[in-house]
Amino acid sequence: MVEIMFAIAAMVLLVTAVAGMTTMTEKAVSEMTLEMQAVSIAEEGIQASISISDRAWSALTVGAHGLAISGTAPIEWIYSGTSDAANGFTRVVTISSYDADTVKVDVVVTWHPEPNRTASIQEQVLLTDWAFI
């Protein structure tokens, strides 16, 4: 009888441990997926800023910007507002002066992996106006 009770207790502990590990693994995978999406959104912000600078250096105005796609042909990236948001992610592209012919582009993406927790990632690049040099 004692052996049966011991076996049942061991099985309950094993099932509880496996269930706990499964839940933790699912949460970790979910958070990694969200972080990968955020990195992709930040990289898109960097590439959009490079595209804008290639088209019109003067469009790289100092300040916080959101991104949008122009509604007219040819389709191009433009700065719009102070941030842009989609699918639970918010992106802010901040342009700051670095020197006479270079600007620093910071892209910060934030999201909420849980209701009361905010996560963020940041990417940055220096862009130079080669026509100026």
Tell me briefly what this model is.
The protein has 133 residues and is an alpha+beta fold. 41% of the residues lie in helices and 36% in strands.
What's the gyration radius in Å?
A: 24 Å
Which structural category fits the helices and strands? alpha+beta
Determine the number of helices (DSSP H or I, runs of at least 4 residues).
Answer: 1
Q: How would you state the average pLDDT, rounded?
A: 88
**What is the overall silhouette?**
rod-shaped
Number of strands: 7
Strand content: 35-45%
Question: What oligomeric state is this?
Answer: single chain
Taking pLDDT < 50 over at least 5 consecutive residues as the criterion, the unreliable ranges are none
H/E topology pattern: HEEEEEEE
Helix content: 40-55%
Tell me about the biggest sheet?
5 strands, antiparallel
Query: Could you say how many structural domains there are in total?
Result: 1
How far the N terminus sits from the C terminus, by CA atoms, comes to 88 Å
What this model shows, in words?
This protein is α+β, with helices and mostly antiparallel strands. It has one helix at residues 2-55, and strands spanning 63-65, 67-69, 77-79, 84-86, 89-99, 102-114, 117-128. It has one domain (2-128). Helices cover 41% and strands 36% of the residues. The strands form 2 sheets. Strands 1, 4, 5, 6 and 7 form a 5-stranded antiparallel sheet that branches. Strands 2-3 form a two-stranded antiparallel sheet. The model has no long low-confidence stretch (mean pLDDT 88).
